[in-house]
Write a structure and sequence with these properties.
It is built from eleven helices and 15 strands. It folds into two domains: 147 residues, Aminopeptidase, CATH 3.40.630; 206 residues, Cysteine proteinases (Cathepsin B, Chain A, Alpha-Beta Complex). By secondary structure, the protein is an alpha+beta fold. The longest helix is centred in the C-terminal third of the chain and has 21 residues. The structure holds coenzyme A (COA). Coenzyme A (COA) binds next to strand 4, helix 3 and helix 4. Coenzyme A binds next to strand 4, helix 3 and helix 4.
Length: 365
Amino acid sequence: MCSVSLRPALPADLDALSALEQRCFDSDRLSRRSFKKWIKRQHEGLIVAVSPKQEVAGYALVLLQPGTRLARLYSIAVDPAQRGLKLGERLMEAAEAYAHEERRLYLRLEVRKDNPGAIALYEKRGYKLFGLAPDYYEDHQDALRYQKRLHYRPANDARLHLPWVQQSTPFTCGPACLLMALAALKGQTPDTTEELLLWREATTIFMTAGHGGCHPMGLAIAAHRRGLDASVWCNQTGPLFVDSVRDPDKKSVITTLHQYFVETCREDGIAVNYEDFTAVDLDQAVSDGKIVLVLISTWRLDGRKAPHWVAISGSDEECFYIHDPDPGEDQAPLDCQHVPISREKFEQMRKYGQAKLRTAVVLGT
Ligand SMILES: CC(C)(COP(=O)(O)OP(=O)(O)OC[C@H]1O[C@@H](n2cnc3c(N)ncnc32)[C@H](O)[C@@H]1OP(=O)(O)O)[C@@H](O)C(=O)NCCC(=O)NCCS
């Protein structure tokens, strides 16, 4: 329908968008408040199809994931009276163009398994099935996950088969990443009890706020004791993470554990390399099928400066891909799996704290 044009949403569209949402979805509807938020926050990503009289006939909402090369099609809908007129395709095209302009490499989306019309639309536009999210919608229906690469696929593309595990507490990112490695390398089924036991073995007890996270050597020891080949790379000798707390008693606990981890690595024959694990090393490890756990600062992902473990799930000329065990607000698990991060951004993310700690745990069989 050529008389319909596309443009970014305006506050004046709010009522029409809410009404359209009611007509198009039976559940999991976006609220008026959400539309308002997106118009304010990321107005260009909420694309509306309007008639010459400015009546809203459809919309597509694209969210950009900070710090990454990912975009997500959060929702798309066309007024029932206007379906079959290629408006869905035009909205998809505009959504992809927007994500591409914003330098995103992939557009990802979820769709109900029982929505053949939308699935046909995505497949027609070249989206590839990428995963399944059981029990995803309010009525417990499963979601299919699709993605499309928005520009050419670079050479040297290496993708690991790495199951993704969501951390079940705010402090178990390291154990969740180790569970991913144990699932990939040993076929071990991820389990919350094991996640907590791994944390007990590897934690520094204190670190920034709340419970402490995990020490790279602690993770390597826990991995080694479960039959994995583990080595640690660290650009400083430590003790690590003492600067993240002020209290002298906490510093002392962290230091004691650091010394214990150093000693235990020596006893268990775990190699600790006091040098940086570079991008070249990372590429090599990925192509050798090793699972690398890397400590990052979450600054570029969510604006907090928290230390956070992620697992590398692949690499290509442009990006490293990570499995992040911690979905943030407004994020689906899909946003945390094989997340493309430009090599340049990843280099910056890999420095934690004032001391610019760079550390990684390399796991194999
Ligand atoms: C999905 C939706 C956006 C499609 O919008 P639309 O404007 O009718 O789609 P288009 O006219 O652009 O269709 C483009 C292609 O999509 C596919 N398609 C769209 N609707 C379809 C249907 N009901 N059955 C089968 N294929 C369909 C076809 O391949 C079609 O190409 P063709 O006409 O050459 O066969 C619309 O049906 C809708 O709003 N549905 C309710 C909300 C929804 O389910 N959103 C998706 C949430 S994940």
